[in-house]
Target: 2,3-bisphosphoglycerate-dependent phosphoglycerate mutase
Amino acid sequence: MYKIVFMRHGESTWNLSNRFTGWTDVDLTEKGVAEASAAGRVLKEAGFSFDLAYTSVLKRAIRTLWLSLDAMDMMYLPIKHDWRLNERHYGALQGLDKGETAAKYGDEQVLVWRRSYDTPPPPLAEDDPRTSFNDPRYAGLPKASIPLTECLKDTVARVMPAWDEEIAPAIRAGKQILISAHGNSLRALIKMLDGISDEDIVGLNIPNGQPLVYELDADLKPIRSYYLGDAAAIAAAQAAVANQGKAK
Ligand code: DG2
Model:
């Protein structure tokens, strides 16, 4: 049996101000820093040890990984940064307040943009200063790989090659892996691992800074999955994430 641990980053400054973030590279809040360290302590106390970690190229996930590894006294761990683990690109919504957007377009429309499988938010214009075309961290990528918006289906299409080509072979080679990523890049991975339907994925919300353990069989099919933290606190955090897209 194999095990892998997923973790959404701790609270970011734009999680706190309730803004659509996507590929915007915002940092952790003080609370997010504390959540990341606490996640490392929880993993250590539960006896987890790792050989390798993966994260995105966005600092909220990278710093979460650093802080949790520090709390585990495992800062020596090799880290692979993969742009394919980035958050889902939120298109022209990036930077907007989620509650205000719901007040303007309606809770239903915002739910579709946030959680539907195949309806992307409106795209950024090619000349919008928010595009990632000139960001050096994506310099090696063909322009067509740099999104202007993404639905979850698009995110699945970029995350799964990272899983199939990099992460799954490393698991099969016996590596104990920790992945620090984002709400929607993790929803993409979990949808594929658990075979969640396009309809049911709407209801899946990932809390900040909570280690999520997957036990996998020899074919890397999930046997069971569970959060390590307090169940009531995690359910409350998931409900809070769901409510972020509602008009106040
Ligand atoms: C959030 C997720 O991404 O937002 O892009 O706004 O996980 O990097 O904080 P993260 C964003 P929702 O899809 O939950 O609105």
Notes: The pocket of (2R)-2,3-diphosphoglyceric acid is lined by residues 8, 12, 15, 20-22, 87, 90, 98, 114, 182-184, 241, 244-245 (CB under 6 Å). The first helix runs from residue 13 to 16.
